[in-house]
Amino acid sequence: MSNRNGKSPQASDTGTGEGKIVSPQTPPVTLPDVASVVVEQNVKPVVNEVQRIAAQTSVSGRNAVSRGTIFMALWFWLLSGIVMISVIARKTQLFPGDITITRELQRRQNPVVRRVFYGISEIGFPKWSIPLTIGSAGIFWALRFRIEAIFVLLTSTASILNGLVKGLIKRPRPTSELVTVVRVINEPSFPSGHVMYYVNFYGLLIYLLATNWRSGKLRNTLIAVFTGLISTIGPSRVYLGAHWPSDVMAGYVYGGLWFSGLMALYLRVKSWLHPIRGQAPALVKPLQQPGDDD
User: Fold this and answer.
1) How many whole angstroms separate alpha carbon 224 and alpha carbon 129?
2) Whether the Cβ atoms of residue 136 and residue 153 lie closer than 8 Å to each other
3) Residue 242: which of 188, 171, 173 has the closest Cα?
């Protein structure tokens, strides 16, 4: 049917020309759309490949629990002297050999050694240790090792024990009258917080690499580097005059104590996620590590 002017209802004016029907315009491409395409085409394949390699090179969750239990036995054996060290530190400001060992170590002045020890100590301060801890946890999370990522973050809780013991013992730090002091730190000395952080953070990384991945060049290299950091942080703190040797020794022992507690909790959670018999609850399946034999 036509109207009075001879136009059909379907051919009404549109404002762009009489009798024309305007097709809908294509929506403009937005920045989020471009970013989504870039991520889909470039980032996601890389992440998937890295996750695939991590799954292939890791052992099963059940195997990791068995290997981790053996590893724990060594730590408990090393913690037998904790009570004796604490009692002595409470009653005296210096252990036998503290000044002698410090002066002997500092007497061997070498620019290269000084820079190395300074660098090793520097990454233990919060401006470096916090990003390192969060970044490492992020890497484990991206590789779908969720529980491992959570426990990497939990290593920072060693500072709680460190603060409690320092507040109880209240031992003064080395002074420039007795030894060379590179940086003055106004807090108690016993035990070394740097050493406790290294034992827990780098110790956990060693533990996770040793129990969750098969032997390989990258894995073994990282274990060697982290072991070197744990071994040298103690001498570096003495060399720089930040701690007495007994502070460092206590840092290793107290750090090991806290680390053992974290590992006991980790093994309990890990064994729940990867039971020897049967299967874990469906609710916690996303927390299981990739490549498991379930």
Assistant:
1) 19
2) no
3) 173
- Compute the distance between CA of residue 272 and CA of residue 71 in angstroms, rounded to an integer: 18
Q: Is the pLDDT of residue 253 over 80?
A: yes
Q: Which of 29, 11, 30, 31 is nearest to 21 (CA)?
A: 11
Rounded to the nearest 10 degrees, what angle do helices 82-91 and 158-169 cross at? 40
The whole-angstrom separation of Cα 242 and Cα 233 is: 11
Q: Is the peptide bond before 191 cis (omega within 30 degrees of 0)?
A: yes
- For 188-236, write each residue's pLDDT tens digit: 888 899 999 999 999 999 999 988 788 888 889 999 999 999 999 999 9
Distance CA 132, CA 152 (A): 10
How far is residue 56 from each of residues 60, 88, 150, 164, 202, measured CA to CA in Å? 10, 50, 22, 43, 24
Residue 58 has φ and ψ, to the nearest 5°, of: -90, 155
- pTM (2 d.p.): 0.69
For residue 41, what is the DSSP state?
I
Q: What percentage of the chain reaches a pLDDT higher than 90? A: 21
Q: Which residue has the higher pLDDT, 80 or 102?
A: 102
